[in-house]
Amino acid sequence: MHLKKLKINIILMLALVLLNGAAAAEPELSNRLTPLQPPLMAPDFTLEDMDGKPHALHDYRGNWVLVNFWATWCPPCRKEMPSLERLYQAFHDRPFRVLAVNQWEDADLVFSYMGELNVFPDFPILFDSHSQVSQAYGVHGLPTSFIIDPQGRIAYRAVGGREFDHPDVMRLIRELLER
Amino acid sequence: MTTRPGKRITAMALALASGIAAGDVVPEFNPASGLTSWHVQGQGFDIKLVQLLPDFVRAVLASRGLSSDVIDAVSSYCAFGTIVRNRTAAALSYDVADWRYVTHDGVAHRGKTKAEWVREWRARGIAFRWIVLPEAQTFEVGDWGQGFTTVKLPPGTHFDLHYSWTQGGETHRTVIKDMQCASEEIEN
Question: What mean pLDDT is predicted for residues A144-167?
Answer without folding.
Answer: 97
